[in-house]
């Protein structure tokens, strides 16, 4: 059997102990004194198995997954030093779930122990979202929310309990984890609370976005007031400057 040397330093040990099987031929010469443990992790995280080995040299350590030898993989590191055998998966994917076996062989016989790895997905999370958007009547507006999670995320927008669909009025996009609801020409009836929802098999998250559509006359009045205020400040500043001279 091929010896596979591990290349690793730290170990993540989670949940219940794995099982251990001893050989019948002189097991005291080849002993797995610390069992590897079952691990539960999430996609993209690190998973590490470790067991301490004591026995007559030379010792050969082999790691298996689902009873098959683990092939060389840049994503998997192995190390066996100071009587410690370790296996580290740098970035866990769904295919890494399964039963892992650490087998140690020497002239006296063999020992092996095993544990399971369960790789779960991540529930969606909302990273970027607006809370209040103001727009002038007739202008386009975009409501955007950025999410993260795995596996595949499904998103939807609702208003007053009704799910919005792409139409001549609303355009819905979801690309690179960015969901956007685009309104081509904002109208007063578009004002209100919009609910965004992201969902996958591991959970659901939601957020609310408030849209306020302003009448154009309000914007014109606001502009007039701003101009008036600006001229008032300029005139006041000029008088103060004149008095100072």
Automatic annotation (TrEMBL):
One of its GO terms (biological process) is synapse organization. GO terms for molecular function: axon guidance receptor activity. Signal peptide: none annotated. Pfam families: I-set (PF07679). The keyword Nuclease does not apply. PROSITE patterns: IG_LIKE (PS50835). It comes from the Eukaryota. SUPFAM superfamilies: Immunoglobulin (SSF48726). Residues 27-118, 124-201 form the Ig-like domain. The chain crosses the membrane at residues 209-232. One of its GO terms (cellular component) is axon. Keywords: Membrane, Transmembrane, Transmembrane helix. This is Ig-like domain-containing protein. The lineage of its organism: Eukaryota, Metazoa, Chordata, Craniata, Vertebrata.
């Amino acid at each position: 059997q091929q010896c596979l040397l591990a290349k690793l330093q730290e170990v993540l040990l989670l949940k219940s102990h794995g099982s251990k099987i001893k050989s019948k031929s002189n097991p005291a010469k080849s002993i797995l004194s610390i069992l590897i443990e079952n691990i539960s992790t999430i996609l993209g995280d690190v998973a590490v198995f470790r067991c301490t080995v004591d026995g007559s040299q030379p010792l050969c350590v082999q790691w298996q997954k689902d009873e098959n030898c683990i092939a060389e993989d840049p994503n998997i590191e192995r190390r066996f030093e100071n009587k410690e055998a370790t296996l580290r998966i740098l970035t866990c994917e769904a295919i890494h779930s399964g039963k892992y076996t650490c087998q140690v062989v020497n002239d006296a016989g063999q020992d092996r122990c095993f544990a399971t790895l369960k790789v779960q997905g991540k529930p969606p999370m909302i990273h970027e979202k607006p809370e209040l958007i103001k727009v002038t009547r007739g202008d386009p507006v975009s409501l955007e929310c950025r999410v993260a999670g795995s596996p595949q995320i499904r998103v939807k927008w609702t208003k007053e309990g009704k799910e919005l669909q792409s139409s001549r009025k609303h355009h819905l996009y979801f690309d690179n984890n960015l969901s956007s609801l685009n309104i081509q020409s904002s109208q007063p009836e578009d004002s209100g609370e919009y609910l965004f929802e992201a969902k996958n098999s591991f959970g659901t998250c939601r957020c609310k976005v408030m849209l306020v559509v302003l009448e154009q006359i309000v914007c014109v009045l606001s502009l007039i007031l701003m101009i008036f205020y600006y001229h008032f400040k300029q005139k006041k500043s000029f008088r103060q400057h004149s008095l100072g001279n």
